[in-house]
Amino acid sequence: MSIIGDVIESTKAIIKGMSVTFAKIPQQKWTVQYPEEPVTVQPRYRGMHLLHVDELGREKCVACYLCAAACPSDCIYIVAADDPRAPTERTGVDERYASVYNIDYGRCIFCGFCVEACPKDAITHGYNFELSVYNRADLLKTKDDLLITKQKQSLNYRVAFADEDVDSEYKEV
Amino acid sequence: MPAELIKVTINGQEFETDKGARLIDVCREKGFAIPSFCYYADLALQASCRMCLVRIEKMPKLQTSCTITCTDGMIVTTESEEIEKAQRGMVEFLLANHPLDCPVCDRGGECELQEMVFDWGGLEERFTEKKNYAPEKFLSPIVANDPQRCILCKRCTRVCDEWMGEDAIEAGGRGSHTVIGTYGGWLNCSQCGNCIEVCPTGTLLDATYRHQTRPWELSRTISTCTFCSDGCQLSVGSRGGEVMRVVARDRYVNGLNGEFLCIKGRFAHPFVNHEERLRTPLIRYKKGGKLIPATWDEAIRYTAAKLRAVLDAHGGESVGVVGSPRLTNEANYALLKFAREVVGTNNYTATEAFSLVPFFENLGAPLATHKDIRHAKTILLIGGEPEELQPLTGRQIRQAVRNGGAKLVIINSVPIRLKHAASQFIQIRPGTEDAAVLALASKDDAGVAARKLNVEAGALEQVRQHLNDAQGDVIVMFGGELGAEAQSLLAQLSFTFGEKEGRRFLLHPLPLFNNSLGVHDLGLMGGALNPLEILDAAGAQLRAMYVAGSFLRTHLEGREDALSKLDFLVVQELFQTATTEHADVVFPAASFAEVDGTYTNNDGFVQRVRQSIPPIHQSKPDWMITAMLADALGTDFGFQMSSSAVFLELAKQIPAYEGLRYPLLKDESNPVQARHALVGQRDVSAQLVELRSLVEGIEETGETTTQTPPVGHELFKLGTLTSKVPQFHLLAAGNPEPESVLISPLYQITIDPALRDEAAVAGD
Amino acid sequence: MSQQFLPDNPLPQEVRVPDEMAVFSPEVEAEIDRHLAKYPLKRSAILPLMFIVQRERAGFLDPPGVAYLANRLGVRIMDIWEVATFYSMINTEPVGMYHLQICRTLSCKILGAGTITEHCTRRLGIKPGETTPDKIFSLSEVECLGSCGTAPMMQIGFDYYENLTTGKVDELIEKCRSGELSNGVR
User: Fold this and answer.
1) ∠B332-B337-B340 over CA atoms, to 5°?
2) Count of CB contacts below 8 A, B vs C?
3) Is B135 near chain A, with CB under 8 Å?
4) C82 and C12 within one domain
5) Nearest CA to CA, how far is B748 from chain A (Å)?
6) Mutate which of A59, A89, A96, A118 to test chain B, going by most B C-beta atoms within 10 A?
7) Is B476 a domain residue?
8) pTM for this one?
9) Which chains does chain A touch, 3 or more C-beta pairs < 8 A?
10) Sheet with B407-412: strands ordered across
11) Does residue C82 sit in the same domain as residue C103?
12) What does the pLDDT profile of chain C (186 residues) look like in tens digits?
């Protein structure tokens, strides 16, 4: 093998490879420039949980523990309490409410069983997905982090429209 | 008597069963599940839920199996399309007015109605009408009531009537508007909470546990009650190191108490996690100074050094060791061993309200179990008030009278509530109970006894005659009013009346504390001094004292400063009490929910106490503290930090407990009775003479009360433990009705601080 | 269980009564005695006695009245409560001068008892089960009063008013207001 032969072979290979690259440049790109650009999440994406409130701002959760019972990774901890105040002044919709509601995101597997189990539609999955923390203890999220009125929504996602074809863009690749 | 056997065919299979057996019981026993709500084996028949329908050949229509007694050749079908249709229809009716609030209902998860619907599935509600609505309300500080969840099985009303004899709740109204309620809307009863226990739905709920947690979140530990001497078995539900609730053991197991518990057993548990629990060992470095928190090492070292100094200076006899009938056998045994082996003193005792030593020394008949009481034919009760002090015994007596047709004879100075069940009630002068025993033991002294008792001699003669003629079991019960001689004579009463075919004497003492019998069995009460004498000797003969638990209020009355005269006082306690006020070192002890051990109840049953939560704060089990202290003083007890090792050693030492091991005590349904040595007939003439002179010395004054004491005059009394439960403060204050029954009275009524202070000095 | 109600087997429970007890005039006592004499068992007279006590004690069974009954009949308070709440003619709560009891069972319901109740509610400004603030009218819905042939009907005191229309109800209410109508009880 001569050096010239080597040069020709490798140049051919480069041209072959680069031709694919140059051919793709004008095409639409699928890579999302996160975090500069928001990520599109599907409407049923299972992100960080949300605890909902009713129209008067009272927590919907009645601390029935069904989510904790349904949880396969046992990451939900609830302490129920009694609220003797008048219905309009209460923390929750019922006399019974959760004084502590913790989800340990170190253990949560985002299976959605808690949402399925909830008889009051009080807990759903939100879209927040940026859960990384510097300290493992911070993975334990309390009611203050989970309540829909208090949870800070990330600006780095965009929920796909119901009729938006989110799936097919990945199929092409 | 062997029961006659008859043949019954159930679903094509032939079975043999006892004559007179209830059909539903037989079917269930043979493995055919029959649903039911209102049927409760122990109670009167109701047949209101119509769930237990079966087809019996040659009978028209479906029959309720809970009201049918098996007859020979009966052919029964329990499963068929027809029956299922009928039952499904019944459940649909039951659910017609039942709200769908399982998520907030405290019964959810252990609700019989929920289980039934869940098991069957596919139930569709066809009623579109509006359901009856009634808000959840409170019937008392500890009973919450949600009328709309009621399925009218009336278990609660029957339990209230038959077990408690109170009839405080009843079903009022008519048709679909029938509700369980009480006259005036506010429950004034002994607040036993048995209605809550038997309720199959969430109609009657524990207000102290209301909206706290869910049943499946609780870990359940079978343990023994820590209040009275009946030793009821209970199930402690705990979560995350906190005792959330206490319920009775299990309705389907024929245990000691079934589903019965009293207010103390069921509701007085919050003391376990109370914020006033002692957290660390405390040392008072200077007399009159403050108790300062210390580490365990420091406290043990300090105590050992101080005790060593007293021992060296004054000898072993200068140290008193005081156990407690509230503590486990293991703790008391460790103390006894400490007194004998480490200190070498005879000055030990227990803070027991009264001594039963003379009784056990002359024990002439076996101890009666609660089952014996239930099936007894004659019951003689001298003094005492079981309904308030030993509620399970009270219930058994009531059941024996009501369902077993027993004759109840009561000799008491107060017209106690049980009087209404008695066939003979003899009201005597206060303080003359000994004279009643004299009259029973010796016929010749009946005259003088009757004069002292202020009763007609005929009445006492009638009792004697009654005991003489009695058939079946005769149970003799007595309270703490009896003196030593009277106790000995009573223990020998079976010999006074002599042998008779078909009659058996059984004895049943009524001590006040959960392990009263245990301290007697261990011999802790057989020390040189009794609790009063040990207090009197403080400062004189005794220089130091080691007290587990606290002295009772009755002990300290008039001897308030006795403990301050000591050079050194070590106390192990749950809370600050009148005894710890003078203590130099206080060790935080673990409560009944945090230790393993045994209690001996008034049947002589040795029953397990099991650890349900880890010890609170830095507390340790009492026997462990004693062992640590002994170790610091140079004696290794060899307990190896295991309570079973303590019990093993105890069982080797104490004859009545010989051969007992923890594994043998495992089954709560079949409790093991300690083998108390029965002495044969003894010469009790000396005691008789003594008693005669004692009785003759009684003054013939003293007013008899005609007023029946109010319900709960003893039950609701605030002690060191019960005063930690806010609901008890309300009850002790006369159970006032709040402005609104929709909100817990705890939020509406402020508790009088004076009551709390009074409770703090109660000390028992 | 059934044993418990025989005359020679008194109730095993203690009879606990409210502190205060009603006192009646000799004529009323005589009437009560007359009723008691009719029955072999004292407690059987509970219903006639309840009517008498209710009549004498401001139209309802107040605690002193209940105490009197319990004492006189030797029954428990709860027994009286059970019976009293069962019958709609016996009131456990204070009622107004005129107690309008509208039948709501089938025949009346079909022929417009609902309209009558609604009309009364509007006219009097109270819901069934309530009493007007001036203590003149009480309104309640009761089960069949046995006058189905003349439905819809209502009962005021012990008197029946039948074939009701909204106009007739207006008339009745006016008559009550003016005091023309006897309330049948007092």
Assistant:
1) 125
2) 49
3) no
4) yes
5) 10
6) A96
7) yes
8) 0.89
9) B
10) B424-427, B407-412, B378-382, B472-478, B503-509
11) no
12) 333 333 333 444 454 556 678 888 999 999 999 999 999 988 899 999 999 998 888 888 888 898 889 888 888 888 899 999 998 888 888 888 888 899 999 999 999 899 999 999 998 999 888 889 988 888 999 888 999 999 899 998 888 899 999 999 999 888 888 877 776 554
